[in-house]
Amino acid sequence: MGFLGLFKKKEVTSIPKGFYAIRIKAKIQLTSESVKLVFDIPSDLKSVFHFVPGQYVNLAAQLDKQDIRRSYSICSGAHEDLAVGVKRAEKGIFSNYVLNELSVGDEIWVSAPQGNFIWKEDVSKIVAFAAGSGITPILSIAKSAQEKGQEMQLFYGNRTYESTMFHDELQALSSIKVVNYFTRENRDNAFEGRLSKAVSEGIFDNNPDLLTAEAYYLCGPQDMVENITEALLSKGVSKEKIHFELFEVKQESVVKPPSESSFKGKSTVTVICDQEETTFEMTAQSNILQKAMDNDVDAPYSCRGGVCCTCKCKVIEGSAEMRLNFTLSEAEISEGYILSCQAYPTSEKITVSYDE
């Protein structure tokens, strides 16, 4: 998981809340533009960093005196050292820091694993679609699927063979069937083109047995995820079987205008964090997370784009509208949870808690 935050960053001088200083055990070059970071987790933190395949961790560092955070999915198997894959973004402050400056033996701030995009060990058949760095959590799931004896079919899109992350690790998973797609290369034993809606529909038409899977995992750019989701739904696959995580979000989705019914007055907001209450007034010009940080609340956050669930909190009183949500389940929303980076008050008084 990775996403460039578009909000004001808060300078810090110590380890952020919820993070741990972890040493880099290994830095493995995957492609010319991506690496695998392996972490040396101390024995007393093993339980803290226990993860379910598919989850992610947040990484943070002080760059130019600012606290920069990014989310990266775990690529490890259950019995491997905790590791993530990092792919360079052209203007990515954090990814360029990792690829250009971070070395073995250095320390970086790492959060405990989290996220709802998780492996289901009680199913017998899995179908997955990934593009680019979206392979990272899928690889972790695939390793567990092989160990469990689950049937798994993976369709994996990249520009070229040389740009393909974790190719060798996937090849080592003998029971996982992998079909490669390359957009800029014609190669034997692979298809040319991208994983579009038409291509995915063709895959299902030619392989109807794929529609009998019990879980579908999609990870990559927003267009790919949306197109394959539409194709699956059109083929009669129930929405509950489709699980997705976004690695790239369309720019027009980042700043979404409020709905016409949005609350337009001033709201009194109380934020509970670490059993401390902070109250302030705000309008719809800012989201709850940003306003809380402006009032010195040490609230958890990472992507600030509705992609991760680090800033999740629960509405105790009042109501709020989320402009975007790519991660909370319908069950979580019905229980009152919101992504505070995307939440705007819709009542004159609202209380939210990060402790729930």
Report the total helices.
Answer: 8
**SSE order:** EEEEEHEEHEHEEHEHEHEEHEEHEEE
Radius of gyration from the alpha-carbon trace, in angstroms: 21 Å
Low-pLDDT runs of 5+ residues are 2-12
Can you count the beta strands? 19
Backbone structural class: alpha/beta
Measured as a percent range, the helix fraction is 10-25%
Biggest sheet statistics: 6 strands, antiparallel
- Approximately how much beta-strand content do the residues carry? 25-35%
Q: Determine the N-to-C terminus distance.
A: 24 Å
Shape field: globular
Biggest β-sheet: strands ordered side by side in the sheet: 4-3-6-1-2-5
Mean pLDDT: 90
What does this structure look like?
The structure is a single chain. The chain is 19% helix and 33% strand. It has 356 residues and is α/β, with parallel strands linked by helices. It has 8 helices and 19 strands. It has helices at residues 93-100, 135-148, 167-171, 197-206, 222-234, 251-254, 288-294, 330-334; strands at residues 19-31, 34-40, 56-63, 66-73, 83-87, 107-111, 125-131, 151-158, 176-182, 191-192, 215-221, 242-248, 267-273, 276-282, 312-317, 320-322, 337-339, 343-345, 349-353. Strand 13 and strand 14 (276-282) form a beta hairpin. Helix 4 (197-206) runs parallel beside helix 5 (222-234).
